[in-house]
Design goal:
alpha/beta; TIM Barrel; 14 helices; eight-stranded parallel β-sheet; globular; 411 residues; single chain
Length: 411
């Protein structure tokens, strides 16, 4: 593994993601200058799906040109680009094209016409970007699993088999457009914690080029344990290590693709300390592909109806001034560039149930979750292993695991 990469999810300082409607290349370049000044090496960018594909058979060429302009501007500043396709869902808002809703209501994961429309869109974006040297690859969409089950108010219900077929089709479309790039899918933590979620840990850890995890301590972790606690400050590392239980490849890379310091659970005065602890603990995970912080710039107070926490999550203010969290991330990136980050294997593995219907044991308050952090507090540096692999000596050896414990053995 190369040294972990450091990047940021790019939230434009002017107009948020609505900037695609009246794209301003000068504003984008100024934003990217402020990101590059932190010493980061990549951005994750979000074309809004209904703006780019307003009709199933219309993918707007001008919108694609704007995306290419952003990618080229990033390259000029030494930044690589990962592109999310199906947006989908961002910061509490859903962005779905009219040809999938109301009078044209069709299931996002199972309707043949919708699936082919999505595949055409992802293939088109990937193909347009394929020759850019700074193009990392496609992420299918941002936390697309939230559309497939509750608590979404109007879910597009699908079975595990149906979501698996959908993932295969979408990843294949990305590969058709840009062969050999790093194409992946990314789910929010219900994939790991919610018993009835049809997107599963096995899919997350086996489908696509890398495993992506999104870590948010407002999921019950900070509420239960507090902001300055082992579970809160190690939650991102926990998700990285939890994902490895399901991976077929013992050295599969894991991308911490989203993580942030959400107020008020993490007050602004504590955000830098939380960031420093979260990043240091994630860097103690072997096979970490990189850390991509959420997000680059604050949401403008001129925009209405965002949850309060969304307005202040940026590393930089709306006028592009770095906050203390930005300085923490910049120092961490510089330290990793200066010397190899090679964490030792995590030799103690906590047993995780194979059954997806038992995932809640891995969530806040669950037996696996609580045992993992008791081990962490004792300095054990735990990882996880599926119950079906707990006696597989070859698998354990490949991962450097020398001790296996069950949750009820952890006191």
């Amino acid at each position: 593994m190369a040294a972990p990469r450091f990047g940021v999810n790019y939230t434009p300082s002017q107009g948020w993601f609505h900037h695609w409607l009246d794209y301003d290349p000068d504003a984008v370049r100024a934003d990217l200058d402020s990101i590059a000044a932190l010493g980061l090496d990549h951005v994750r960018v979000f074309p809004l799906w209904p703006y780019f594909q307003p009709n199933r058979t219309l993918i707007r060429p001008r919108a694609v040109e704007h995306l290419l302009d952003l990618a080229d501007a990033a390259a000029e500043r030494g930044l690589d680009v990962n592109v999310d396709g199906l947006q989908g869902h961002l910061s509490s808002f859903d962005f779905l094209p009219a040809w999938t809703r109301t009078w044209h209501r069709r299931n996002l994961f199972t309707d043949p016409d919708v699936v082919e429309g999505q595949a055409d869109y992802l293939r088109t974006l990937a193909a347009a970007l394929a020759d850019r040297p700074n193009f990392i690859g496609m992420t299918l969409g941002n936390e697309i699993n939230q559309f497939s089950a509750g608590p979404h108010p109007d879910p597009d219900r699908a079975t595990e088999a149906e979501t698996d077929r959908w993932l295969g089709r979408m990843l294949a479309a990305c590969e058709e457009g840009a062969p050999g790039k790093l194409h992946l899918h990314a789910e929010y933590d219900a994939c790991w914690y919610q018993d009835d979620m049809p997107f599963t840990p096995a899919q997350a850890a086996r489908r696509g080029a890398v495993t992506a995890v999104h870590s948010w301590v407002f999921n019950g972790t900070a509420q239960r344990h507090g902001r300055h606690s082992v579970p809160s400050e190690h939650h991102a590392a926990y998700l990285v290590e939890l994902s490895k239980a399901w991976a077929s490849d013992p050295r599969r890379p894991v991308w911490l693709q989203e993580v942030g310091a959400p107020a008020p659970l993490v007050p602004p005065a504590h955000a830098a300390a939380f960031t420093e602890a979260t990043v240091a603990n994630a860097l103690d995970c072997p096979d970490l592909w990189g850390i991509t912080w959420w997000c680059s710039h604050d949401v403008s107070r001129d925009l209405a109806d965002f949850p309060e926490l969304e307005y202040g999550l940026g590393l930089l203010t709306n006028d592009r001034r770095p906050k203390d969290t930005a300085r923490v991330l910049a120092r961490a990136a510089a330290a990793v560039r200066a010397g190899a980050n090679v964490p030792a294997p995590r030799a103690t593995a906590l047993v995780v149930p194979d059954d997806p219907a038992a995932r809640s044991r891995c969530g806040p308050g669950g037996s696996v979750f609580e045992a993992f952090f008791r081990l962490t507090a004792d300095g054990a540096r735990p990882t996880t292993v599926l119950a079906s692999r707990a006696d597989d000596t070859a698998h354990l050896a490949a991962r450097g695991i020398t001790a296996v414990v069950t949750p009820d053995q952890v006191r």
